[in-house]
Amino acid sequence: MTKVIEVYSFYHCFYKLIFYIINKKGMIKMIVEIKSLIKRYKDYIAVDNVDISIKEGEIFGLLGPNGAGKTTTINAILGLTNIDSGDIKIFGRNMRDGESEIKKSIGIVPQEVSIFKDLTAEENIAFFGKLYGLRGKMLKDSIDEALNFTGLLGNKKEFPKAFSGGMKRRLNIACAIVHKPKLIIMDEPTVGIDPQSRNHILHSVQKLNEMGSTIIYTSHYMEEIEEICTDIMIMDHGRIIAHGNCDELKELISSEETIDVEISSVNYTIVDNIKSISGVRDCTLNDKKLKVISDKKSKNLSRIIETISNTDSEILSLNVEKPTLEGVFLTLTGRTLRD
């Protein structure tokens, strides 16, 4: 794992330099820029010299086990936590100098549902809309747009205490987007809901991104991060330990893939023939199951299939195991995401 982190550190520094050069030329607009962020709680360092750059139009996935520093970092971005040192810029402005104006363009979907059960869905959204300065026709139109977007327009006069968990989550999102924020922070927005509501929310996140919002997204569901995030950062013990898109992160931990093949009959010449194929590192046969370890970029699957087909054996099943984001996370942190 140490070697993996060393490789990551080299490329992280290299890409930071490239992005700095490009950004100086005005080709990339940064929505969030965090430099050398440190936050201590007495002797405990919750965030340890963290740098984060989030480009306009990204869905930025922030991953880490419990206690990794994610929440502290998000609270620092929102100005809810006083930092010990470092610099935070949102929309190109320093958070310390323009906090009130900056927050008007940020929407927050907290992990815990934050709605009023004794107000109707419409009244809930109106409350948050007014906090962001919306009034009159603009407020009314924005409420209806938020309700329609989250599929709750037909429930606008209903009280959320009678809503399902998924409907409450969607109302939470409606309250966060009523003012059409440029930056939306979503902290585990799909916790504890049914698959249909989860799919609706994931589709909504992608739609909000297409409409122009940059999104910071945290989740305990690795498949969500893989599905929607354009850029992913993994934190552990207050530090950034990996950064890149999904494919780049998978490249950090693996240069090989495993091909499992079940065949109809045992033929031991298959093993030697497959081992002679370029890119194959190893091949074993257990009962009627072949396990082939191959270089990931060798593109030799068709030759492996052809070699088996040239014998008396038939292929009953075939599966190619590729690195997963869950595997990357486990390798780098030594823990599963929910630990």
Describe the protein's architecture and organization.
The chain is α/β, with parallel strands linked by helices and 339 residues long. It has 3 domains: 1-105 and 182-193 and 206-254 and 325-339, Rossmann fold (3-Layer(aba) Sandwich), CATH 3.40.50; 114-178, no CATH class; 255-322, Alpha-Beta Plaits (2-Layer Sandwich). The protein contains 12 helices and 14 strands. It has helices at residues 2-24, 70-77, 99-103, 121-131, 136-149, 165-177, 195-210, 222-228, 246-253, 269-275, 301-309, 325-333; strands at residues 30-41, 44-55, 59-63, 85-90, 93-94, 106-109, 183-187, 214-218, 231-236, 239-244, 256-263, 280-286, 289-295, 315-321. The strands form 3 sheets. It has a 6-stranded mixed sheet, with helices on both faces. It has a 4-stranded antiparallel sheet with strand order 2-1-4-5, covered by helices on one side. Strand 12 and strand 13 form a beta hairpin. Helix 9 (246-253) packs across helix 12. The chain is elongated.
